[in-house]
Predict the structure.
Amino acid sequence: KKNVHPKFPNGGKMSQHLDALELGDYIDVRGPQGKLTYEGKGVFSVRAERNQLSGDQFQVKRLGMIAGGTGITPMLQLIRHVLNDPEDTLEMSLLYANQTEDDILLRDELENIR
């Protein structure tokens, strides 16, 4: 989005790209494929290769997640983990999409998350 952050008056590169897409255009999105591990309390470990024992660690305060259909399951695992640890202050947001309302998996649980 434009004019949301003073350092990026035209929006970020991804925002600009997504904003320029026409109705019917596609984007290719892939998950971390097992190279990303949540260690707790906002710490993620990212491995360059799947067979590495450990990876670089990153501390975050906020996490945005995007999921569609059955892709909600790994996101919900992370959400549950964070919410079950009273010392974990990670702020999370989730964008979850489906073809129809009837396709929403685990809807009751998702609606009760606070």
Notes: The beta strands are 36-40, 43-46, 56-59, 62-68, 91-97.
